[in-house]
Fold each of these.
Amino acid sequence: MAETVKLVSRVVIRGKIDDVWREITKTDTPQLAFFGAQMRYRALSAGSPVQMRTPDAKFTSVVGEILEVTPPHRFSHTMKFTAHDDPYCKVTYELKEVAGGVEFTLISEDVPVGTKTAKDMTRGGDFIVNTLKQIVETGKPALGTRILYAMFGLLAFTTPAKCRSEHWPLEGKTNG
């Protein structure tokens, strides 16, 4: 078995726990804390496939299976970047009410060391928690993040063909 690592990113968000929970589980609008992708699942319950797609649904960036849903305190799922040929890992979001707001912790486990997945998740963890904080506290991500997302939209044509959503049907098996 390949060597793996556990990554943890944590932040305290001035807001209500239900608002943070909604932001990380919603499917009706893009999740701006997660690079503007839109979450899709059959049901918000263990065993359901889960995906992150572009808002136009042309591309699927992440696939996995929901492992645990304990609103509004814990959400966990497996995940794999469709652009990489790396094994699945596990992502857990923990929410805890604390003085002044909500402690939000993003835990990535079984991340295979030395892979593209490890590189992306190492860079992405702090970005996700800090962007989530901005969204819950101010209603929108920072200007630099909004500009980054606009660039993503302009460069969508460079997305690898293997990420096209027709290769990752939500109904099919998504967990390896």
Amino acid sequence: MTEALPVPKQVLDTLKDLLGREVTVNVTDPAGDAPVVAVYQHNDQSLAGVIGFTLPLAANTAAAMGLVPPGGAEACVEDGELSPLLTDILGEVSNILTGLFNLAGRPHVKFHALHTSDVPGDVRSQLASLGSRLDLTVDIAGYKGGVMSIVVPLN
């Protein structure tokens, strides 16, 4: 069973509620590179979907959620990797984003893993697929934004 993609409004509402600040989302072309990827599974451990974040979006989303000043996110982007604190916070964000995949009458989906470096090849392949995907630019008030790619497997 192919998972249903969320619509941009669902992503917008989830992020606004989560971050408690103004957020805008717009459909865009795939970003190409997503060094941070959250993986979601069904209860039988089959792949339900992946969410890829550009590093600026990953860092700024986590910073906004954790009330870390924007400079903390910018430092991570300059260093080319998330700090342990922002990695932990983005893990919580990714867990909450599970709600984008769970729909009434569909198999239960759970957050499985957050890859912040050395994204496995099969996860990277899924993220690069052209099938069922939603690519969004996300801007967060007071922070910088980036691109989020949500991809569900085609069956």
